[in-house]
Each structure stands twice: as C-alpha cells, then as structure tokens.
Amino acid sequence: MPGTCVIGLQWGDEAKGKLVDLLTAENDIVVRFLGGANAGHTVVTGGATYKLHHVPSGILNPGVVNIIAPGVVLNPPTILQEIDSLTARGVHVGGDNLMLSERMHVVFPWHLAEDRAMNDRPVDGESIGTTLRGIGPCYRDKVGRSHGIRLGDLYRADFPDKVRQVVEFKQRLLTGLGDQETLDAEAIIADYLRFAERLKPHVADTTSYLLDAVEQDRKVLYEGAQGALLDIDHGTFPFVTSSNASGVGVSAGSGVPPRWINKVIGVAKAYSTRVGGGPFPTEQDNEAGQRIRQLGNEYGTTTGRPRRCGWFDAVAVRYTTRLSGVSGVALMMLDVLSQLPEVKICTAYELDGQRISNFPCHADDLRRVTPIYEAIPGWQVDVTGVRKYEDLPQGAKDYVRRVGKLLGRPVEIVSVGPDRAQTMDVPAVD
Ligand code: GDP
Ligand code: IMO
Ligand code: MG
Fold first, then answer.
1. Could you tell me if the CB of 13 is within 6 A of ligand 2?
2. Which ligand is nearest to the CA of 331?
3. How deeply is 238 buried, as exposed, middle or buried, from its count of CB atoms within 10 A (0-12, 13-18, 19+)?
4. Is 54 among the catalytic positions?
5. What's the CA gap between 184 and 386, in Å, rounded?
C-alpha cells in the first residue's frame, strides 16, 4: 500500500519540509492537505535554501507530481510569487508537476483584514497571535458556507456577482469591528481574475487524480503543515490553527480514504518551540530558552517572529504520537542540544497535587501544570558532521533512545543539521 504521511507532533516548525524533501525521492506524488500560507517549510539542498509556504516540498525533485488538495486554503498572490521565485531559481513548476484542487477555498483581502481585526482581541486573556494570513476567517467562511468562494468558482460566470455580494457583507462586518479597510469589489474581481488566468494550467480535479493514483499503486507522500498540538479539534484550543493538523486530518483534507494510508512518520524537534500565544508547559522563558533560540536560530519562517523555546515535552508528544497513528519518529535538531551542559525531558506533569501523564484538554489546566523533568547530562560534542548513528556520542544516543521509550514508538530518523545530508537512520537496536 502506497501512502506515507509526515506529521508535525508539536506546535509546528518541526522541520517537516526537510523530511518531505528527503522522502520525496521514494514517492511519485506529494500532497499538501491542510493549512495555507501560514506554513513555512524550509528545504536546504546543495547549499541553496528554499522557503515554501504553499507549494509542496516535493517540488525540488524532478518528475514528482505535487498536489494541493481540497483541505488547503489558497492565497493566489502568495502561490504565484512562490511559483515565480522557484522558476527564477531554475526549478520547473508547470501544470505537469503542480496541481491545485478546484475544491480548495480561496483567501481574499477581507480574510486578511478580519484576521488583523480579530487578532488584536484577546481570547481567554491572551492573543492567539496568528500568522495574519487570513487562515481562520477563510476556514470560518468555508464552514459557514454562505460566503466561501472556491478556486473553481473563479472560472464561472457568476464569480463577479458573488464577490460583490460578499464584499457588501464583509464591509459591514469590518466596519463593525472598527477596521479601517475599504474593500473595492471591482478591483478585487479584476485582481482575482488575473490570478485565475495565471493559475489555470494548474487547476484540476485532484480528488479523482489521487483516487486513480492510489488504485494504480502509485506512491503518495502526504505533507503535514503546522503541528498536531495546533489541531483545531485535538490541540490546545483556542490557541490552535483552524484545520486538522494532526494525523487524523490526512483523509479529510486530501480526499483519500484511510485504507490507502499505511505509514505515519511523526516529526519532532529534540526540544520544543511555539510561535504565537497559548499554553506551553515546558517553556523556558529564561537563559536556557534564549540559548536554544540562538543555537537553533528559532525565528518564524513565515513571520520572522522569535519562537518561544523550551525542553522536550514527552507528555504532549506521546499524546500526539498516538493521536496521529505514528509508526516511527524523526527526531530533528539534535545538534542544537549538543552545546548544552545538561538537557531535560518532561516525563509527566503535576496538576493540583496529582502526578498526571495524560495531556489535559483545557488550555487553563495546561497553563497550571508543573512539568516533572528528567535531567540528562549534555554530550557537548559537535554532531553536525556525523552521518552514521553509531558515530554519535553515547550521550546523544541515550537521549534518542530515551525519547523513543517515553513516546512508545521508535525514533527511526535523526537530523543533525538543515541539509539533506545531515540525516541518519537509527538502527532498531544499538
Ligand atoms: P517546518 O515548518 O516543519 O518545515 O519547519 P521550518 O522550516 O519552519 O523550521 C525548521 C528550521 O530548522 C529550518 O530553518 C530548517 O532549515 C532547520 N533545520 C531542519 N533540520 C535541522 C536540524 O536537524 N538541525 C538544525 N540546526 N536545523 C534544522
Ligand atoms: P508550519 O507548517 C508554527 C500558529 C500561529 C498561531 C496559530 C494560529 O511551518 O509548521 P493561524 O495563522 O494558523 O491562524 O495561526 O498557529 N501557526 C504555526 N506555528 N508553524 C506553522 O506552520 C504554523 N501555522 C500556524 O503562530 O499561534
Ligand atoms: Mg515552519
């Protein structure tokens, strides 16, 4: 059976892009199935760095078909800029290797304005701190149904009228929210018709294409975006994104039923980061956190915001490992911990005097937990040049095994730097 998924197990930015690029060589098709331009996936190869927001990370491998499936929300100017920038760098992007679902909902200027207006309003005493890419408002319109516009709609005769109707409603909404944005329906129609013309060679019925592909035994790699702790249903609500970012979202977003998906690789950093608001039990808002940020260059790929940093949280990641049906874990950024005299893993929480090992459902409980740590001596050896697991220092190997044991799933891949080459398989036993 031909379906492999790459799912982030934390709050995003686990280096999914690197892993997808690596695994693409063994696959025929790469599918993005959720989120939108809020994602920022980095691929480093041959000394060149590519930051991808919309285009799947398989695009750098010639001969692979990249699909953006119905579960994604598409920002046309962003994807066009990305296509132009890839083309200018000599990467082929055409109708043959990038397909966009006609079912996908489209982000419009009113979504960006709504995101801005709402983001200033705290939820549960704290701002969500979105990426301001219009993600929540666009998904809200999709679920609400009355104002959602899909990519296929841009090619239909009633598109201009639809925009005029939505603009009338959205203008009143934005004014009510105190936003200064003036929406010009005719300018939006003209812009989006131009975008539609340029995107036309890519637009397709990706659902039928994928169903044919899996029935013909072609190999499909599903590229997760965000991370399972940002999942709308199963994450740290309301400090989440607006789609299913854990493994349970693959079928709904791609249109491929579960029977065709047989392997889930969970991607986790060797520590934790979070960008935006919300509870983060192992956060180190201190020198240790600053050191991790500096060593890991932890600044947002999409927004440039400094990422909040902390120790590996085995309670949270055990939860998302199980939730996502992970068969094996890829542990990334192990090199970042290599300079620290001591590293810590959170193995349980204490809540209201009780020791717990389940991940609490309510953000408020998560804010109140006290992490219980296990300290592991640092190995303090530069591992960025190591290419074989056996050559890692014993302390680093002990850390990898301990993480696997706490998660209940083996760590199968270790990454020690951003480049494709800085990756190694982990043997089943030392
Ligand atoms: P994604 O959103 O999950 O694809 O991750 P991002 O691209 O937002 O963030 C991961 C960052 O870490 C990128 O800058 C990568 O180039 C970089 N990276 C990936 N793997 C490693 C690694 O093993 N070590 C280090 N130091 N950096 C890595
Ligand atoms: P990748 O795919 C990290 C976070 C935002 C915010 C919350 C909601 O690169 O891992 P949104 O704009 O989605 O409404 O923001 O989710 N967020 C991410 N954090 N990596 C991402 O994507 C993210 N996408 C959204 O910071 O806290
Ligand atoms: Mg990212």
1. yes
2. 1
3. middle
4. no
5. 56
